[in-house]
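A reminder before we start the practical. When you read a complex entry, don't treat the lines as separate problems. The point of joint prediction is that each chain is placed relative to the others, so the output describes one connected object in space. Small molecules and nucleic acid strands, if listed, are placed in the same frame. In the example below there are four entries. Take a minute to note the order of the lines before looking further.
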Amino acid sequence: MSGKALGWLALALFAAVLAAFPWTGDLIGERWPTSYELRLVIRAMIIGIVVIGLNLLVGFAGLVSLGQAALYGLGAHVAALLSLRAGFSFIESMAFAVAIPAMMGAVLAFPTVRVRDVYLTVITIAFGLVFVNILRDWVSVTGGASGLANLPRPTILGERLLATRAASFNYYYIVLLCLLVALWVQYAVAHSRYGRALRAASQSENAARALGVNVVAVRTLAFAVSAGLAGLAGGLFANLALFVNYETFTFTASIELLLMVILGGAGTMAGPILGTGTLFAAQQFLQGLGEWQTFGYGLLLVLVLFLMPKGIVGSLAALRARMVAKPEARETSAWPNWGSGLETITAAPDERGQVTMAASGLTLRFGGLTAVNSVAMEVRSGTVHALIGPNGAGKSSLLNVISGFYRATEGEVRVFGQAVANAPPYALAKLGVARSFQNTELFGRMTVLDNVLVGAQPHFRSGFVETILRLPRFRREEREALAEALRLLRFVGLSDFAAEEARNLPFGHQRRLEIARALALRPKLLLLDEPAAGLTHGEIEDLVKLIRGLADRGMTVILVEHHVDMIMAVSDRVTVLDYGEVIADGTVAEVQANPRVIEAYFGAGTGNGPQTEQTEVTA
Amino acid sequence: MNAITDLAAAEQPSPASAPILSVNGLRVSYGRIEAVRGVDLAVGAGEFVGIIGSNGAGKTSLLRAVTGVLKPVGGSVRFDGADTTGLKSHAMVARGLAMVPEGRMVFADQSVRDNLVLGAFSRIGQDRAGVEADIARMIGLFPRLGERIDQQAGTLSGGEQQMLAIARGLLSRPKLLVIDELSLGLAPKILDMLFPVLTQLNREGLSILLVEQMASYALAVTHRTYVMENGRVLFDGESKALAGDDRVLDAYLGRRGKH
Amino acid sequence: MTAQARSTRPLATLALGLLAGLALGPAPAAAQRAESCIGISMEVTGPLANQGLMLRIAIETALDRINGAGGVLGRPLRLVIYDDVGEPARAVDNARRIGERDNCVVMFGGARTPNAIALREPLAEMGLPWIGAISAGTGVIEHPNGRNEWMFRVSMKDRWVTEYLVQQAKARSQNGKIAFVYEGTAWGQGALPDIEAAARRNGVALAGRETFNIGDQDMSAQMIRLRDAGVDTVVLWAVDRESANMLRSMDRIGWKPKIVSAWGLTTAFARAVGPLADGIMVAGTFNWNGPLSPEAQAALDAMKAKFPDRIRTTADLEQPSAMANAWDAIFILAEALKIAGAYDRTKLRDAMFRVNYTGIVADYRPAFIRGNQERMDAVLPEAYKLQAFHNGMLMPIEATPYGMRN
Amino acid sequence: MEAVTQYLLTGLSVGSVYAMVGLGFYVMWTAAKAVNFNFGDIFMLGAVLTVVAMDQGIPLLPAAVLAVVVAAIAAAAIERGFVRPFNQEANAIGWMLTTIAVGTMIESATTALFGSNPRGLPSPLAESPIRLGGAGIYPQELLLPVALVLVAVGLELFYRRTMLGRAMRAVAWNRTAAGLVGIDADRITLIAFGLAGGLGAMAGVLIGPVVQASSTMGGVIGLKGFMVAIIAGIANARGVVIAGVLYGVSEKFIEGYLSTAARDAIGFTLMVLLLLLFPQGLFGRKEIKKV
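Here is the predicted structure of the whole assembly.
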């Protein structure tokens, strides 16, 4: 994509301009920029680092934090205290200024296990307020409201780090370097399995878990990284100002940081820079309004939020998209399309006839009602096993227990011979259990390709550091995952849509994509929850071919479905549920002949003619 | 079921000459996904019309656009002689179009009575007395509601909730009652008692538009039926005629000469 | 969508404009030749905006007087005001702007002590003289490195004020049980060690130390503790709103100790609590309700004339002492500039030590003494005056029934 | 002993303020699943506008009523202008930012026009306290819990007995269904925000005489009211009332027996812990998450 190249160009330009900025004066023959402009740019760069971190949290992980200023302040105070009280060197104190907030961030991530949305935001607010309160009133350590003054001038290898026109402004370049590092971290995380996992988890937590994403782990990581960056910025600030007190890190500051993220465009690469630059500059220029400047500040925000709801970058991108709107016809190829290279996907099946999934005495209760009642069933490998029953019979509940979304109240489930009671979905996914959802749970705002790549998550071995540093193993794995994803897209005939946002796909294609995504896990057991719902007969026939094909290649498929003829076409075996109990189990023919089944579906004495019989099974 | 067939048989289809609802080239889309792709449809005054089609055929989207739950991207809706394209649902209710939504959507945290009263929200100001009378009438229609009048609606069974939803819809004294997926999650026994009520209401002059997945039921009670697939109307015709028609099964079951 | 599309381009340009704006702005002349401007960084917005306004009123009026007489060295003195929204980092931004971009010859400070403390290093680095008219924190003038050469003050000094108040309290307390109540700000917290020291020096054992935070609305807990400790005199270190809330808490529990306060209390406080304020004593540098010298009277009239809608009576001078300080500070500055003979910061700094001037607050002879941090303060304790609230007015104590009679 | 009485009394009054502001958040949230994040400014307007009105020579009671009405209208306007457009798709956060921005504007405009100094709000009930031994309370402060009870009961009746109240609950339960029975959900939401604004402003008017009116009086209280509502499980009015009062009282005991300076640190920490123990809030009901 040229867009990407453009991005790199812009970054290079940005870095060059910033690097050249202090020397502008020598070009235009003026004593400019003065220490004032230098300081402003340094402060903007420092805040930019915090905002980049926050962007990872808000823009990618979808976690809104209104306590970020506290982490920024934590970094500042760690650096200040260590250099002031413990005589740490610049480098040493900075290391801790990053590490300690990062740890704090990881702790802050814990609540996300329990609470969401506005509740989480409130917790971050509380954290910020508590932090400020401690800074202000733990006088003996933090100096209280008077703060910590007269920090020693930082040095590297004896070189004093200054930021003034008159003396030297080498500190300027240290901050610039850190900013570029932060930008790199943002890029490296965003364009990796971590970034994909974060966005996936924020757009459909269930699907993410089903695809082997350990949601808690990645969120903890996101919190830690963003807190680490905040701490880095804090340390840089402390060593610039040589004075810190709580007033720089209040709730208001947290709000400003969040606004900068949104203003620039949450979840974009350049957003944080533009957001920070704009708002920070605005603060300086609104000085002219005197006592009305905060009013003007608020007004500016309102205007921007109204005119650019997606932020500067987001809106510009939307504009660009509209301007180069090219309705080039996209080719939807036939599927399934068993090309070469797909072997890996069905590489490791259980050997034939072996029990892949066995449930015994399985019971699931929600408060009063019993959704699943002491169900016993066996699914043999390489077979397609249909699970049918009237609405509310407990089919989906059963599926959710097998895939780990619900905890069985009683009984046990064995998958691939091992008991998996209470194993979380992502663990089951790693074992080789993949599933689709009744109402397709795609990651709507991610591209079709990225959707599939999320499925490749569990195959990665390279760790976070390898990812950030783009070490060989990471590159290899990324390449392989990409290749496989493309194969899968070809398999389901969506190659041409790879770059499209998933939510823009027509319904039928969304089903295809969801299956391709599930296959990316290379599952041994595939759970399909009403995959034919909403598909046209043509599409259903293809779906039948696909399922059959997978089963013939050794994959085990459990299928919850209404379409009788489809069930008849694909299933080796059928289990019928009613009121959470198994009322029949056998081949399609046996089941259809079973009077209890007819009773369950049509009620006594009704149902006349083959037509009604079949149509009503679809109810 | 036989009962129903009799009812329908006894009823002679009313002329679609003076349509109370006419939909022309209606188009609905979510983002870039087109759910309804240019549908024409008409309901005559006093007529009982059905729409059938497989899951995802666009039936519900069509209804939502007609009742103003969502805005169509194209086409027009005329109701009771006026162009109502794009009107919000509360405005449509005021004009005499009530909808029994898919999944019933009763106000589970309020009593059955309050649900009924809310049904009359658009007219309660004018005649409380009339509303009370109608509530009594509904209890006559569905005695089960009478027994549970002060219970929280959430505690009702699926069938009872469906009754409540219908009664709630009727309390706005609609000219046209639109019902989405009456059968959803209901046991046939209950359906066997709900459908006759609809037939009776229709007999009393209420026009009804019924979206139903259970084709057999729909075809049995309605005068005319539209068959939808892929957001389009494949064909329509007199329900009796369609009941035996193989094309229905094809469209519906996606059966292509298999077995 | 379309609306947004249309608006995107102009707004983007605005954004870029703002960014680019950083790079524009007037390029200052050579450093040694400073502009004839006074830069202020103070609270223009936020909870302390009123103090900023009062400061502005005094300074602008004084400058009118000076410029009316042809300015200094033939040039009028300009005033540039920047808001520090109460945040030290912003105060430093502003100092840099004043010193480097605007290249002003001198800088004035606002009310808040931390903002002044944060300026120590940058001011010295820029060689920019600074004059404080309010912020009374001891650390503003007494730098740990003992080498404060650029920060002057024409205001009170907490170390001296605490000494003064402790003595006043000691003189008034029947049972010798004196407590210190302070707000949780740099100003309040900063005074605690000074009070402790002052108490020790005067052989007073503080019977209680209580604090509260800005915005607190009820201090019953603190007051109950003090009352139960038998305290009969309170040294107060807080501003109007919280002090008023504290007084109400005292009133609730029916406890009325003697209160001697630092100068955070103004007429706004009296307005808020009404009769409860009567008899509360406040240390200050000047009182506009007493007999006024001709100069003071002239100053008052000038302020009334220049800000007729803000200043009608002396009650509208809501920072009475600070405004008098600022008034004197401006004239001291003018004197120093004349002595310096040029708009040159270093020359001005040196000249400050050679100023002898009779102001409305005190007789400054000399105003400052080089190499003696103690004397980077122009207003000495001798000039402190005790005042008391009486019928909603802050009066010289002699003019009230609360004067010493023992 | 008298200390305890004092803490109970003042705690009760300040707690009532939290509870009333919290109820405001509750009303907004149930109607819109979004709130005016700077609701504290509506609270502030209640007190400030009363003072302004009295400056115009209007006597206390009519002035207070006028202030509450104006503040309520402002609150409704904020919903229309700044919440609705940014609350279109589920769990959007746009409204959070816009309301914050508007709050900034309101607060700074008030500072510029009304002044940054606090102003007394004279009330005959705040002149001399009722003494109980060494403890005491202003009649004005006793008004708060009384008002709270009235408001809570009134709200309960409103939601259960009146058509408008039923409609609000209907909208809260399911906007679509509400529309399908003829309820204009948008209009109801607008009214709800107005109602909430009225509650908040009333709290401001009632506490004003004790703590004075100032442009910054709303910030912290608004935040605490919001947190109290969240802790209670924002969809439960009774819970909000209880949580509010409890938090107010516990604050006083923290001040009395732990620390005055660290009151908020301790209080907020408690809140967070509670929230972690009861993710849906103390009184919120736990919904089964559908997969």
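Discuss with your neighbour: The interface with chain A takes residues 82, 85-86, 91, 93-94, 96-98, 100-105, 107-109, 111-112, 223, 226-227, 230, 234, 259, 261-262, 264-265, 268-269, 271-272, 275-276, 279, 281, 288, 291 of chain D (CB under 8 Å). What might explain this?
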